[in-house]
Q: What sequence folds into this?
């Protein structure tokens, strides 16, 4: 499994995102779209983890006592909030530049996160209660092996949460033609042919011995920004657990 998983890292993709490392935490910089996505993603994570781990919805630290792994963590935009929710967090990214920026930001913010430069194969034998990987699977060379690696890192009784763009005409228009064309998203970030439909991702998860739970769309509202919705045609989030 380690060799198969190792093959999923696309060095060109890692280098592309590594070049953005210094600007990652600038909400108006090259990662501005990720900053805009984060509130909706965190709302979803809070909802599904409360349901899965039987939280009461009121705690400020609902993930206390849980371990979490964020794969493709970038400079820590999701890892730090997960730590603030109480989890013991490990962030993993293929670009060493991102890990450097993540460590520096966490230290300055006083947030404890373990950051590791590498792929899922660099955590042999380690398992986590929560495994997240947001907008990452469309950038790997072998999605099936990548999902299998994520599944190996999921502890019994744990929860996996993934998000990714759908392969539709809308996602091509919004993310590539408009997003990259206007500079809102750095050029070369996406390859539309690498996007996965919900059915394709479901098949990969089931092939890795997981059972898909919730599937939710992530769309854009001019008035409210990114919002959770039933329509999955732009982007979507999915949960999975061991079958």
A:
């Amino acid at each position: 499994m380690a060799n198969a998983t190792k093959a999923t890292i696309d060095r060109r993709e890692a280098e592309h995102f590594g070049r953005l490392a210094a600007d990652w935490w600038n909400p108006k910089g090259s990662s501005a779209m990720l900053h805009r996505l984060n509130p909706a993603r965190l709302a979803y994570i809070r909802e599904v983890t409360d349901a899965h781990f039987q939280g009461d919805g009121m705690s400020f630290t609902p993930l206390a006592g849980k371990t979490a792994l964020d794969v493709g963590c970038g400079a820590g935009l999701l890892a730090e909030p997960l730590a603030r929710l109480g989890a013991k967090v490990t962030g993993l990214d293929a670009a060493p530049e991102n890990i450097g920026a993540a460590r520096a930001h966490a230290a300055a913010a006083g947030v404890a996160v373990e950051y590791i430069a590498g792929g899922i194969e660099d955590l042999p034998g380690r398992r986590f209660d929560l495994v997240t990987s947001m907008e990452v699977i469309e950038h790997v060379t072998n999605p099936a092996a990548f999902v299998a690696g994520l599944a190996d890192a999921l502890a019994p009784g744990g929860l996996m949460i993934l998000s990714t763009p759908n392969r539709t005409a809308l996602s091509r228009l919004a993310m590539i033609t408009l997003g990259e064309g206007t500079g809102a998203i750095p050029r070369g970030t996406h390859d539309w042919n690498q996007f996965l439909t919900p059915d394709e991702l479901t098949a990969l998860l089931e092939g890795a011995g997981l059972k898909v739970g919730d599937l939710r769309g992530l769309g854009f509202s001019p008035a409210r920004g990114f919002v959770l919705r039933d329509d999955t045609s732009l982007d979507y989030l999915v949960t999975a657990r061991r079958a």
About this structure: Helices lie at 2-6, 11-18, 32-52, 79-84, 96-109, 143-152, 169-180, 198-207.
